[in-house]
């Protein structure tokens, strides 16, 4: 073992590092922690001194695990930092070109111009004071939905300001909130080279961008509430930006050659509803003033003093709660429920000893039209008008009506319909929050779960025309679907007609209980057609039946924002399904994981590798910077892997 060794081996080699972060002087998003045996007797300055008997006390700060991070985690800060670095690097390269052309005779001086941003030595004195207001021209729109302004400090150093609620071409006044130095290890020196940028609050527009249209804004809290970022931008432009977000993620975080290994990103699929689409809102309120000094055991209890606290969502960039009376992205039923909950909290505020988060979740009751007419007649004859009747929203769906209501008890049942499939969940459980886009979304997954050869073998709803694994069929036929991170069975159920058997796997027993009820009781699927089991995704392929092989299976994965862990990716490559459909609410971690599936795991000959067949985004959250990514991969055969 060499003196300088990795404390934790990297699963992903340098090829997983974004291309513009490679090379001499270019930082690497992956944090490599080096340990030298020669330095063992010379601890770092912040390491506690040895006791007289030789051992050291525990470090006061529990940051060891954080410092050992070896994988790009795709957090909001990580993605923003990549945007900042890209803007600085491109600007410095342009400066280098200008300098070289202006002084071609001095070639040595031209070569001396560094392509790395001058960020480490920016003098704090040249930065604007905290809370001061400055005028800034917005240069670009980040993948987080924030505007970026590029200016030069008094010493000539390029510097980036992050300004929310702005668009390229805007000239705005912003208030300085904090100066940030984010460490990124330099691949050349192994030293932490900080990239400095400044976070600001939006104050006002001095000169609007041609893209800005204030008439599009439908929320009176916009530019204060942290929920939406893009209401002033035309919806078509929002979709185009989100396509760019997917492109940037795979260019920066996959480690793939975007010209050879990543196909052209498809247009972002629009949400049928641009507003009134969100079926779940969780407004909250903070505890009473002086609550930190409250101690019931000592008789010190801080009350509300008759005041109702702000009930709503966070102010952008702060921990302050804004009082939100209405939210235009919530469905009509959810907004009615939120108003009802606000009234209830105001009446019962003295019952709360601390703050709370409220739940407003839409539930749907499907009623045949003739039955609904009878129900309306009975209601008209009723002496008592129930409050829940007033809060219902009725939608005409042809032969049926959908009666929408708002559920506020996290343990109560909610019902959602996706086409003719019905899903039951407890109100507090996870389910996609934009029901309007789910039919086109699930149809897209259906269309891509099978390859061209297998699509002709898809079955009808009654189960006929299914491929039979007992007959002499081509080895390319797909019989099985494995739905990893299945939740309450959205993909397992909506794709079940395509496969002989669909298996949903989730770590949550509660989700599996809901999935079984959804499949067998509500959607009338037999256990032989769709089944579910509880297992950790990191070990899920170990629990599959012996007759379920990679050659006859497709896998759909929809992990949380952090993406797939290392163990799961190893298992997936080892199981080697013919097709993989990767759905993600975080395209940065999706790109990271897909890069591993395409390139393989560094230093390991494990399983198969894949080709990206298609890639595109779905707009589950209009008016925000978020985009849902869908990446379809097909397994390389041995000849293809060698030639690729």
Architecture overview:
- This protein is an alpha+beta fold and 644 residues long.
- It folds into three domains: 207 residues, no CATH class; 128 residues, no CATH class; 199 residues, 3-Layer(aba) Sandwich (Rossmann fold), CATH 3.40.50.
- Helices cover 24% and strands 23% of the residues.
- It is built from 14 helices and 24 strands.
- The strands form seven sheets. Strands 20-19-18-21-22-24-23 form a seven-stranded mixed β-sheet, sandwiched between helices. It has a five-stranded mixed beta barrel with strand order 3-4-5-7-6. The chain has a four-stranded antiparallel β-sheet with strand order 8-13-15-14.
- Helix 10 links the parallel strand 18 and strand 19.
- Helix 4 crosses helix 13.
- The chain is globular.
- The N terminus is likely disordered.
Let me know the largest β-sheet. Answer: 7 strands, mixed
Which bin fits the share of residues in helices?
Answer: 10-25%
Distance between the termini: 34 Å
Shape: globular
Give me the secondary-structure category. alpha+beta
Low-confidence stretches: 1-68, 98-122, 185-190, 456-476
Number of domains: 3
Q: What is the strand tally?
A: 24
Task: Indicate the mean pLDDT.
Answer: 81
| CA gyration radius, whole angstroms | 28 Å
Binding site for S-adenosyl-L-methionine: 432, 485, 506, 558
Protein name: S-adenosyl-L-methionine-dependent methyltransferase
Biased composition (Basic residues): 48-61
Keywords: Methyltransferase, S-adenosyl-L-methionine, Transferase
């Amino acid at each position: 073992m060499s003196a300088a060794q990795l404390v934790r081996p990297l699963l992903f080699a340098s090829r997983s590092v974004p291309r513009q972060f490679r090379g001499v002087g270019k930082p690497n998003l992956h944090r490599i922690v080096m340990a030298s045996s020669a330095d063992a007797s010379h601890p770092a300055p912040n390491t506690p001194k040895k006791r007289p008997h030789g051992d050291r006390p525990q470090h006061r700060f529990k940051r060891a695990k954080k410092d050992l991070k070896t994988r790009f985690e795709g957090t909001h800060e990580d993605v923003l930092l990549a945007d900042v670095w890209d803007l600085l690097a491109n600007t410095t390269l342009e400066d280098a070109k200008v300098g070289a052309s202006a002084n071609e005779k001095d070639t040595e001086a031209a070569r001396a111009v560094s392509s790395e941003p001058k960020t480490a030595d920016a003098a704090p004195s040249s930065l604007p004071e905290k809370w001061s207001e400055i005028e800034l021209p917005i240069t670009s729109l980040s993948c987080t939905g924030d505007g970026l302004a590029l200016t030069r400090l008094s010493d000539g150093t390029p510097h980036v300001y992050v300004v929310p609620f702005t668009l390229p071409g805007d000239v705005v006044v912003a208030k300085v909130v904090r100066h940030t130095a984010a460490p990124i290890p330099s691949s050349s020196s192994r030293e932490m080279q900080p990239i400095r940028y400044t976070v600001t609050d939006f104050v006002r527009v001095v000169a609007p961008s041609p893209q800005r249209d204030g008439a599009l804004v439908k929320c009176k809290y916009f530019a204060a509430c942290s929920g939406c970022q893009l209401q002033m931008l035309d919806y078509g432009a929002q979709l185009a930006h989100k396509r760019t977000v997917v492109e940037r993620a795979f260019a920066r975080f996959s480690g793939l050659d975007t010209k050879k290994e990543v196909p052209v990103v498809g247009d972002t699929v629009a949400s049928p509803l641009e507003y009134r689409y969100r079926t779940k809102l969780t407004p909250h309120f903070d505890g009473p003033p002086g609550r930190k000094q409250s101690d019931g055991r000592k008789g010190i209890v801080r009350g509300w003093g008759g005041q109702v606290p702000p009930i709503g969502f966070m102010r952008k960039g702060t921990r302050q709660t804004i009082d939100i009376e209405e939210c235009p992205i919530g469905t009509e039923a959810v907004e009615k429920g939120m108003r009802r909950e606000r009234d209830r909290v105001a009446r019962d505020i003295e019952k709360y000893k601390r703050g709370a988060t409220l739940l407003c979740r839409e539930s749907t009751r499907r009623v045949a039209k003739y039955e609904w007419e009878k129900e309306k007649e009975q209601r008209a004859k009723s002496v008592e008008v129930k409050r829940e009747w007033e809060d219902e929203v009725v939608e005409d769906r042809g032969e049926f009506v959908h009666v929408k209501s708002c559920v506020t008890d996290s343990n109560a049942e909610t019902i959602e319909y996706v086409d003719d499939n019905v899903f039951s969940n407890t109100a507090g459980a996870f389910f996609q929050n934009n029901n309007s886009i789910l039919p086109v979304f699930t149809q897209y997954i259906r269309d891509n779960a099978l390859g061209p050869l297998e699509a002709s073998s898809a079955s009808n709803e009654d189960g006929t025309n299914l491929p039979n694994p007992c007959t002499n069929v081509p080895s390319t036929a797909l019989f099985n679907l494995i739905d990893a991170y299945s939740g309450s069975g959205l993909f397992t159920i909506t794709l079940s007609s395509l496969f002989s058997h669909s298996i949903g796997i989730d770590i949550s027993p509660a989700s599996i209980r809901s999935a079984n009820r959804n499949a067998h009781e509500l959607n009338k699927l037999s256990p032989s057609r769709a089944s579910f089991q509880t297992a950790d995704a990191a070990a899920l392929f170990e629990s599959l039946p012996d007759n379920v092989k990679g050659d006859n299976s497709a896998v759909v994965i929809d992990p949380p924002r952090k993406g797939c862990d290392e163990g799961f990716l190893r298992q997936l490559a080892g199981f080697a399904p013919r097709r993989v459909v990767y759905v993600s609410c975080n395209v940065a971690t999706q790109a990271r994981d897909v890069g591993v599936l395409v390139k393989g795991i560094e230093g390991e000959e494990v399983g198969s590798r894949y080709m990206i067949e298609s890639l595109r985004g779905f707009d589950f959250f209009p008016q925000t910077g978020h985009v849902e990514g869908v990446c379809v991969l097909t397994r390389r055969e041995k000849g293809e892997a060698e030639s690729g």
